[in-house]
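User: Before I run my own analysis I want an independent prediction to cross-check against. Here's the chain; please return only the structure tokens and, at the end, one sentence I can use as a sanity check.
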Amino acid sequence: MVNQEKIEEIFDIINEGCSFLYEKRKSNYLDSVLMVTVNIMDSNSIDIEDEFLDEYMVIINKFSNQYKVEEVRKALQYVILNAFKEIRYDNQITPDSVVVIFSYLVDKLYGKRELTILDPMIGSANLLMGIANNRENSLLYGIDNEEIMIKLAKMMGDMIEPINLYFQDTLKVRLKNMDLIVSDVPCDVTLTYNVIDYHLDSLVDNGYMILLVDNEFFTQINEEKRKRINAVSTMLGIIELPEEFFKQKRKSIVIIKKSIEKVEKFLLAKMPNINDLEKMNNFIRKIEQWFINGGK
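Assistant: Structure tokens:
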């Protein structure tokens, strides 16, 4: 179990370091975050004026190697949200409640065995890292064409677990032999079709693709792309998520397998409000039963 006090402690250390750099150098919050986290992981990387060094080191040395990886990830979430507010960056981090569902599905599909995982639109890496933290021996890959996101993903990887990152258009990076593809795809139906169509080729046979998509994906049909996708894969299930999870459009999780199969029982589940314990228990039982019945 993660310790909320430890999460707040990590956040406070990074925030204190950022405040120090702003005071002494007028560095903006995002640049300060990137510098502080690098310095925490490698004190030899510190490049600061001698007159400020001792005071800065006191802050950096507050960070302990005893923190759990999930405590670090959750603290970095708060740090990233702070950075987004300062630069007025219109982007969202995948909610933790969604990360938990993804991790649960991955465990059900793969157990705890070693995996090679790709997030073709990695963003800040919160989703990918949340999944990796729940298992051992993952080889991680991520792609994004936004410099800010690549920097934040690298920060997450440096602080927790290394990620092989590609700063490029996701439809121009062709990887192979991925066991699993996961992603929180932006609200763009055309892009969603293109990502599925293009990156299915990156999966091993019988590998899975689990995506968070805009619900408009199910109503705006691209016949050409759908035929290409259906020629090499099978959609096994859809989990519709509660409206309160997102500020704008409704979203769902889709489960796709790189295999042509006859689906005996398609998983169609609607997640209730998480505060309704009875409905949540029924929701979880429905998914558990799907797996018991060989849904994967």
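Sanity check: The chain has a mean pLDDT of 93.
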